[in-house]
Amino acid sequence: MSDGSNRRYEPHVIEARRQAAWKARDAFRTPPLSEDQPHLYIKPSAPFTSGNVHIGHVRSYSIGDAYARFRRARGEDVLFAFGFDAFGLPAELGAIAGGEPPSDWVNRCAAHMTGQLQRLGFSFDWERSFLSSDALMYRWSQWLFLTLLEAGLVYRGTGNVDWCDSCQTTLASAQVEAGGTCWRCHGPVRLIELPQWYLRISAHVEENDARLAEREASGKWDEVALASQQIVLGRVDGVEVELQTDGGGALSVFTPHAGALEEARFVLISARHPHAEVWAAEPQVAVELEQLRSGGWERSSREAETIPVVDTGRALQTPTGESLPVYITPLVDARFGATAVLGIPTRDRTDEVIARRLGMDVAETGEEQLTPAWEAKSAVRYKASDWVVSRQRSWGTPIPIVYCESCGIVPVPRDQLPVLLPLDIRPTGTGNPLAELEEFVQTSCPRCGEPARRETDTLDCHFDALWLWVPACIPPESREQPLDEIFALADLRHWLPSERVVAGSDSGNFVFDQRFVTKALRDIGPLAFLEDGEPFAGCLFHEMVVSDGRKMSKHLGNVVDPDELLARYGADTVRLAVLYAARPQRSLNWSDSAVLRCHRFLTQVWEYAQRKLAEAAASEAQEPERDTSEHLRLKLSQWCENAVKKTTEDMESLEMHSAVRNVMRLFDRIKDFDKRVIARDETLSRANFDALFDALAVLAQMLGPLAPHIAEELWISLGREEHGAQTPWPGVSLTVPA
Ligand SMILES: [Zn+2]
Ligand SMILES: [Zn+2]
């Protein structure tokens, strides 16, 4: 037991000492596989190597780390590790701005961010962290691409991309300015058609939808996470009717307005509808459809008022004998996916706009009737649709495909992976430097050996996200094994599915696509042991950190810098404050008051405990005459029991804001006990000191996951033993390793 001589709370001294101790005893190393031990994988988000840890990261990792430490404190084996999402546009732009190769830029950023996260005391297993841009890791993308290609889940199609003529490059939508101009040269941007690689997520959209009810029933998916999946699905319920063509064929047409079928005036077909060609048999229509697809339409003509509509010149017959003209337009996709829909101007604003453009009368008919002649059956459509995984950019995973004059499109054989990305590439913002690098482009055909050209598109970093959650499960010594062997490791069966993913509310698309790829790999075989095809048993999505109700941005000058806060108050205060300030599912409106409140609390806990320890040491010799406080000791132990019960429930359900409040309340109770004993007996007897220190030890245990440095330091000054990853949870006795 300490003699209470460390009176002042000096977070930087305490935190440096604890971090050194954790490092020395390798506290956060993932435990070896042991089936008798309860075990779980907590999946933090994979940060972009953006240069700096921001306050949003701090929020995310403070929640995840508190949960990881809580589960370890209860004696469970925890895997808590992540990889950096290092490919993609932000890194490319950062490298352009810094005038260095992107590989140098991301390595520097990752090292800097790792240092920041370590100073915050997050308990990641750093040995398992990685960068998605390392060849050893991006071979996962190439392996997955080939695996999905063989299964028909990756396919070649044509798609529209934003194109800048003067920069000779495709643009990501983030690079198109509000007025439809290029971010770099401010010239006009056109939509053009390019051959692209697509991911067929439509193959598992229905199962993703169906399994959402199970997610909800498990109680381990919070409302924000569930809502995000609904948004990505974009499920529309309605009815489907079969309409006859003049020529004797039929087309299945959807509408969400089951009660207004007789008000339909026309039919709209997506340009991506599987039978769109059938409707463009007339040469003139075919030309127009081709123009529609190959674009050239201006960025500005994407609204209902101006978006292209191709008149097929043909019609469908309703059961009541009316004739509905058929049009092809991309307007369908964003609302219902690649399908055909009834145009009902009286019910749908977009349809109303189209009707006016086509010169139709949109007045209500006034007849309220459900015509029995219409044979409609319930149907569902989803907005979620196949997406383009290829990008005309150099900082990404090379697509393992070769184009040969005689053999056509040839996949690179698996034993020739990885196709290496040249590291000396310097993107400038124009063109695609990879396509200009002859030593990369020129190769020989894997099939016939003749000269051939490599695919110079790279994979969008969203494709990397499909597998980024897996490699943390692999022990570092197995990382270089062939992927087929890696997928056979017992480690994957041990840790998957992840017990909980903790990520920002903007991760809905990532999680949706990870749920897709798990189902794909379940069916193909490598993840067959995940029978429901779900990678995450639980999912917590937290909201953002904002300032005065607005998004933080440099432009508004309202950015909170975690490094500054850390330098001023220490890691424990910063972590406790972001947990305390709001429940995860609410936006955290930043204010200094939460930081000040938490800093004051930790300072008081520390100084109070040290003062009491000094008093106890000084009073060692003489036992006071009076001790009439037994009932108060009983009360104190009941308060402790209560606080433990409530805080345990809070931590189990990741309600850390409530856990912090319960710990704060217990501290008030401890001081109250002290005050009441003094009022009765004037001094504290040995028994009262012991009761007080036991209560402070319980407080230290509950503080362990929330403010780990001060908690362990307090635990030690109360004469308790430090070991393993964590102060044990109250009531849990962790065996000390020999
Ligand atoms: Zn440009
Ligand atoms: Zn060939």
Q: How would you characterize the overall build of this protein?
A:
With 738 residues, this protein is α+β, with helices and mostly antiparallel strands. It has four domains: 1-30 and 591-738, Orthogonal Bundle (Isoleucyl-tRNA Synthetase, Domain 1); 37-132 and 202-232 and 468-542, Rossmann fold, CATH 3.40.50; 147-200 and 388-462, no CATH class; 235-383, Isoleucyl-tRNA Synthetase, domain 2. Helices cover 38% and strands 17% of the residues. Helix 1 packs across helix 23. The longest helix is centred in the C-terminal third of the chain and has 27 residues, at 592-618. Residues 164, 166-167, 182, 184-185, 187 line the site of one zinc ion.
Low-confidence stretches: none
CATH classification, class level of the largest domain: Alpha Beta
Unique ligands: zinc ion
* Largest sheet, strands/sense/barrel: 7 strands, mixed
Tell me the distance between the termini.
Answer: 22 Å
CATH superfamily of the largest domain: HUPs
Q: For the residues shown, what is the average pLDDT?
A: 91
Proportion of residues in helical segments: 25-40%
Number of E strands: 28
Strand portion: 15-25%
Shape descriptor reads elongated
Quaternary structure of the protein = single chain
According to CATH, the fold-level topology of the largest domain is Rossmann fold
Query: What Rg do the Cα atoms give?
Result: 31 Å
Computed structural class: alpha+beta
Question: What's the number of domains?
Answer: 4
Number of helices: 23
Query: Which CATH architecture of the largest domain is right?
Result: 3-Layer(aba) Sandwich
